[in-house]
Amino acid sequence: MSKESSLKQEASMHPITSIISPNDVNVISSIGNNMVISHNPNISKDEAVINALGYKQEFKREFSFFTTFSVSFSVLGLLPSIASTLFYSICYAGNAGITWGYLVGMIGVMCVALSMAEISSAFPTSGGLYYATAMLSPPKYKALLSWCVGWSNYFVQVTAAPSVGYSCASMILALKQMTDESYTAPTWHCYLLTMAITFACAAIASAPTKWIAWINSCSTIMNMLFLFISFVMEYPF
What domain of life (predicted)? Predict the structure, then answer.
């Protein structure tokens, strides 16, 4: 008896299950789109998609739409990225240069974002980078390209967090120097503050999902508020 026939027989024996195909939820599955699996109709549509991909849902879906947006918004780092360079942009490019520079750059960024959104919607799995790479690559190079993408992403994640902590520590020490002109930050001050920020971020990342969702929402609101304040302070009235 084939696997497909056995699954259909199992579904007929258990009325709480039904048969679902990856084609029914418009995804490309690692088990093949001709394969069908048993599925509980009482679960959510998102979990049905995961099941159709050949996986079992493990993580709790406790992020709202705004919370999910907050994760991406926080990763963008608009406050340190834009506010810290806004002074140079105004001086050398002016208001017109900043406006058109952002608009032209936004077109390219949106093309990349839409492409990534399309790929993510087709392969909605954890570790989507190397999974999508394997599904989109020629069969001969799937393993190699997935290995390269996986490890390159790992090194980015390992180096990105300390760099963000270092930037945050530098900004805090700069504020100290602005209020106390006699203070000069030694290297070990910056190092210890960077380590403290990194450990604090690690503790937050280990918190329950609901806590992380709330923290992400609050940080996004604060990011928007401080970014607006930076624009007002930097603008040459």
Answer: Eukaryota
